[in-house]
Amino acid sequence: MANDLMLSGVSEISLDDKGRLGLPARHRQTLRDNGDKGIVITKSIFDACLWIYPASVWVGVSRSLGGLPSNDPFNRSMQRIMMGGAVELDLDGQGRILVPAPLREFAGIRRGAVLLGLNRKFELWSAEAYAAREQEDLKMLREGAGSMGSGAAGLVL
Amino acid sequence: MANDLMLSGVSEISLDDKGRLGLPARHRQTLRDNGDKGIVITKSIFDACLWIYPASVWVGVSRSLGGLPSNDPFNRSMQRIMMGGAVELDLDGQGRILVPAPLREFAGIRRGAVLLGLNRKFELWSAEAYAAREQEDLKMLREGAGSMGSGAAGLVL
DNA sequence: CACTTTTACCCACTATCGCCCACAAGTCTA
DNA sequence: TAGACTTGTGGGCGATAGTGGGTAAAAGTG
To answer: Does the beta-carbon distance from B66 to A150 stay under 8 Å?
Structure first.
């Protein structure tokens, strides 16, 4: 069941010269268990990184996106970036995907990359961008812990 | 029952060259009694240390994290650090776990480490970082006892 | 229609991880 | 006090995951 997916974990991955990215074995396993054969890769609307969805999750996401009223410019921007950037891909025999050049460029990914499991999707960062992002995240968390965002203040970690 | 867990105590542990960490026997026993076979290790959002959750506790934490609205940057940072960092591991035959290299690096752990039981989870520190942290903790407590943090003022210790 | 570029599939190598065995030191018991 | 057991640590080895490269088909372009 797609809603039970719990993707997580950092992986340092290197793309080869052809732009292929090998999905870590544990994630391949998770996707298989979930009945997913394909994945959808698209642009993040928040950061210079890519979002990678299991195909079964993407259908729900794209449905929600498509259902947004398009009189709102923000919605139109979101649709253009996410729907427009979305490419459906299958894994090759070695469990790899070819990340399309425009998307690689969008995220500044050359060779070193970092793949983050985030519940229902993955985020793919260039190694450099991720290192910077991690520092920013930590800074924000450590400075702003007293004024936590919506819903987060009551979390018991 | 996961909510009854009462992990406590400090242990000085040394990781071997492969990055393996042997969980102290008394904690292994506690986890067994609790019906936990796996553990989840992730990054702390507050300090340069790692959080180690029994798998049964983690499911609740990750569900809470995943449910946070992602339009808030603070939430996204939290999700990226905690969900993104989270790796599920099983103990090997000797009751050890292999701490993934990116996480070891995050916490600056090389060989000497300190494991703290904190109710529902563990904190894993590098020996040096923990020594420094302990000094800071004591300093803060002695100087700031009059202005205790949220909820602590009324504590009967 | 021919040529160039890209992509998909196959094979192959190497570093790493997971599992097993082994030992040393400390602790409890008889 | 001595022996047996438990616990913490080290290391070897086989399986496999991660990466690189070649080749043939397909698609795009002039």
So the answer is: no
Q: DSSP secondary structure string, A47-105?
A: SSSEEEEEHHHHHHHHHHHHHS-TTSHHHHHHHHHHHHH-EEEE--TTSEEE--HHHHH
For residue B97, which nucleotide's C1' is closest to its Cα?
A: C18
Three-class SS of residue A5? coil
**CB of A24 within 8 A of CB of A113?**
no
Give the pTM.
0.90
B111 lies within 8 A of chain A by CB: no
Give residue for tokens 């942290």: B133
Q: Tell me: the pLDDT tens digits for A145-157?
A: 666 655 666 777 7
pLDDT tens for each residue of A21-79: 999 999 999 999 998 888 999 999 999 999 999 999 999 999 999 999 989 999 999 99
Whether residue A69 is contained in a domain is answered as: yes
Number of domains in chain A: 1
Q: Is residue B27 part of a domain?
A: yes
What is the domain range of residue B101? 2-144
Min Cα separation A26/chain B (Å): 10
**B152 part of a folded domain:** no
Residue A152 lies in a domain: no
Tens-digit pLDDT profile for residues A70-124: 899 999 999 999 998 899 999 988 899 999 999 999 999 999 999 999 999 999 9
Residue B5 predicted with pLDDT over 80: no
Whichever domain contains B111, its CATH number is 3.40.1550.20
